[in-house]
Amino acid sequence: xxxxxxxxxxxxxxxxxxxxxxxxxxxxxxxxxxxxxxxxxxxxxxxxxxxxxxxxxxxxxxxxxxxxxxxxxxxxxxxxxxxxxxxxxxxxxxxxxxxxxxxxxxxxxxxxxxxxxxxxxxxxxxxxxxxxxxxxxxxxxxxxxxxxxxxxxxxxxxxxxxxxxxxxxxxxxxxxxxxxxxxxxxxxxxxxxxxxxxxxxxxxxxxxxxxxxxxxxxxxxxxxxxxxxxxxxxxxxxxxxxxxxxxxxxxxxxxxxxxxxxxxxxxxxxxxxxxxxxxxxxxxxxxxxxxxxxxxxxxxxxxxxxxxxxxx
Amino acid sequence: xxxxxxxxxxxxxxxxxxxxxxxxxxxxxxxxxxxxxxxxxxxxxxxxxxxxxxxxxxxxxxxxxxxxxxxxxxxxxxxxxxxxxxxxxxxxxxxxxxxxxxxxxxxxxxxxxxxxxxxxxxxxxxxxxxxxxxxxxxxxxxxxxxxxxxxxxxxxxxxxxxxxxxxxxxxxxxxxxxxxxxxxxxxxxxxxxxxxxxxxxxxxxxxxxxxxxxxxxxxxxxxxxxxxxxxxxxxxxxxxxxxxxxxxxxxxxxxxxxxxxxxxxxxxxxxxxxxxxxxxxxxxxxxxxxxxxxxxxxxxxxxxxxxxxxxx
Lengths: 312, 312
What we know:
Chain A has 12 helices and 8 strands. Chain A is globular. By secondary structure, the first copy, chain A, is α/β, with parallel strands linked by helices.
């Protein structure tokens, strides 16, 4: 049996949020629908933040409804606070991705909360979910941003990441998402964080969220795989970027990630050739945005044998 | 003690050879001089092939002479055959990088030789070197191209790579260079090749030469480090490409590689900030060529602490 890997598309949220060009709702839903059809089983479709803060997500209700109508797809959304979680529960989204930063400064700048206040918010969100009737309770994920470095504070202590991870789990997180938000990590850092973290949190699913800001994204994925991580975030065409570095890469490129994993013999469940075609929805809707990605330029290796078809 | 890593610049050869725009000799030497000053200790400065085949290397004599005048730099050059080796010996270059392809079809297309004929050529080159007076004998490296996949034949057998590696060593190779010429490799393939290869060849230095054609270049470096490889080829700004895929990436990006290694705490001996500045020589001389590289766009992480200065 090949190891199954869960890939989660975050381009609709983490990719689009830094772009001021509004992607029309129909284009977002065409993208989500097409990518879900390639076998990507989970997509972070939007963020429940006030539209005046991020106009890109003004259509979060329509996008959520459209995504929930796609059979088999897990539709998740980012929630920065209790109000966002309320909205997600009302809309019936499958999973709430709560996010807080390990770096105190980053958390203050990003959500105007101390980490302690964010943990308290998280507890309130879990209480809210548990107060819902069964069948209306979304999965709750605890996200730790800047877990491998911070653009304000620099390096971040492994012990601090683990401490918050444990607090989120004790508060009721059903899974964790650990993010190199600003693309600072290298394979040694990844191993130094994920090995003790996984030893601490046991069997709770942990997703790794890497950015390719300095070119190390897929190397970090490989190091995380070595630690036992089997769930990764990425964005098609690497949509995203860095607000502090114009032209810099953002999230790791979904189709390059998917190629590397398939080539390594892992089971992504994704039709790689179809996946590359989905780039066209981004290109058509956002023609001025730089699209990253090596596979789309180079194509598959000659005589490439997909992992599913290889003789074992 | 931090592990020392030897980085070898191959942009002047592997990078420039696919570009028809001639880089003026003075610009090549300005690039070599500036990059040597950053701490890069070995540069493949040219290729001894007939100028009618690759006009880019018509100035190989002047480039070699200029590079040999730089104190502390090991100047190497590619030689495809005995004639090229003769030329290198006449010019007094420090190291000859002989190259043959593990894939029979690729070797026939590239140098019009069967692998057996290339091995015979290599023996003749070693004989020629040994017939020189002491002090005029260049180091001889045996290079195996398409060792991780071939654009004609697809996957390449590990046993075949090891077989040719052993033949090159028995014929007198003082080091080996193992190349993923067309950017097909993933970290699993890298480990599956380099672990048994290093077990077989013992203490002979082995350089890994990766391309980033499908985005896996630095992940492959990390996997090769795990196997014990400590010598890597790369090109500044990823100069190079793929003749079959316009716009595709070529060699792994030297400055991104250097950042990842430094971040991992390894000792490259290179001044990373100076290295990024050397990109300007390529940009000025070849303004129409696409320059790759994430670090140059994003900059170093905030509060980045160079490995040499970190508290241990």
